[in-house]
Each structure stands twice: as C-alpha cells, then as structure tokens.
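Possible regression after last week's pipeline update?

I re-ran a chain I had predicted before the update to compare outputs. Posting the input and the new output here so someone can diff against the archived version. Not blocking, just want to make sure nothing changed silently.
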Amino acid sequence: MKKVLRSCPAPLASTAVPLRLRLPLPALEALMVVAWSSGFVGIRFSTNYAPVLLVVFWRFAAITVCLLPFVAREIAGASRAALMRQALIGLFGLAGYIAGVAKGIELGVSTGLTALIANLLPVGTVVLSRVVFGERSGWRTWAGMALGLAGVAIVCRDALTPGSAPSWAYALPVAGMMSLAVATVSQQRSASRRDSLGLAATLWIHCAVSLLAFGCLQGAKGSLLPVPSAGFVFGVAWTAVLSTLGGYGLYWLCLRRSSPARVSSVLFLSPSVTLVWAWAMFGEALSWPMLAGTIVSGAGIVMMARQTASAQG
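New output (post-update):
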C-alpha cells in the first residue's frame, strides 16, 4: 500500500518521483476510500496506547519532518499568498475536521452518530458552493446525496445512538464537517491559480499548520512527549502513512480532477469500508445490512457521478 500511495499523485514532480501514474479517476477514488477509512481504525487502535490528540500531534510531526527535504525548495520559492492560502485550507481541512470529530467523540457523542454527521460532507460542499459561489446542482446530485446518506444510515444503524454528551457537543462534529467542506471548496478553486503548489508541498503546509494546532491543544492538556511503546509507534505510522498521505493526499488529488460534490460523495462508502477494516483487524462481525447500505450508497454515488459527467460534457 505504501508503494501505491507513493506512486499515485501525479503532481509530485517537485519531489523527483520518476513515475507519473495517471490512474482513472474511479481507481483513485477507490484507493482514497480505502486509505481514508483506515484512519478510524487507526485511531481506535492508537487509543489503547496514548491519548488521541497526542497520537494526532505525532502523526503530523512525522509527516512534517519526513516530507520537508522533498518540498523545501518549492516551499522556499512559493509566494506568500500561496503559503497563507494553503495554511488556511490546512487549518480548516485537517485541524478543524479532526478536532471537531475527535473532541465530539471524547465528550460522549456516539461514534455512529459522529460518522453519520461526518458523511454529510457532500451536502455541506454543495450548499456552500451554492450559497457562496452561486453554483447550481442538478436533481441527480440531490437524489444521489439522499441515496448516499440513506446507505450510510443503514450501515451505521446499530451504532446510531445519541450518546451521553452535553447538548452543545453535538455541534462539534457538524463544525468539523463544515470545516472540511470549506477547505474542499477552497482547495478546488485554488488549484487553478498560477501560484498553486504541488501536492507534496500542499500536504506539508497542511500538516505543519495542523502540527502547531494540535501541539497547542494537547500541550494545554498534558505532555507532548511520545509514549515509548511499539503500539504507539505503529499507531502514529499507520495514521500518518495511510490516513494522511494516503487518505488526504488522494482526496486532494481527486479534487484536482473532479468536482467537490463528486469527490466528497465517494466517502459515503467510508463507513462500509471502515467496518471491513474493523473485521480484518479486530474480528468484528460483518452483516447483511452493511452490504445493503453499501449498495444503496453506491447507487447514490453513481447518480452523482453521472450528474458531474453531464455538467462537464
């Protein structure tokens, strides 16, 4: 998987990666869903060894250090406007999204309800594009989103409980979802600018900004020192390579080739794939409702993809 994730992003010319593999968009989206879904089980695994915010802090620290030699020249030559723009996108897309979701779960919002709220992302991006930029969406887009959400609800039905959180805490996953929606629409529009950065440099800025944000959040609660255990190291490596470089990297890459509505809608399949990850790693049982929900979500994604194709054609 690491080898695949290294070879997929075509914009990595600045990192001297010799292979420019241009996979079809559906193949990239499939890889994105697999990598994105790995983050949920990675966090679950990591919480057995350290606080969530500490794992997230070191996740971004590892990427920031490892990517720097490959992007230093591009970062140094970038305009101040491009750097500030990507810093804000990273603050919304990584730090805002993860902080809202993770803090909501920590305060008692159920995981199933949080997942359902997070999967409102396509709705958030479409509404934001409509309100801010005046973009119109066809009936297939809205019908596809309805099917996608219905499928997610079927998959997560056994986990859809309110939880024990205070009433205001339920706004945190919503804020996290909208934070990623803002970043999604902004990133899609910034990619067309002349001073836009390559994918590796973009990810480095996003992770560096998130590193500072989570350093403040975790530092206010306790120590930033890593936990000396193999489980902690594995959890950090898992979420850094698969979830961030793979999930977010492929998310931004797909966004360069399609609309925010289509790319975000593919994540309707994330709960189903997450359950497959949980079955493979933790032995959790699979179910027929999960398969049914996946089929329903898949139908919604196909409908939205057709709307995107007709709009571009």
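Follow-up from reviewer: compared with the archived run. The chain has one domain: 24-312. Marking as no regression found.
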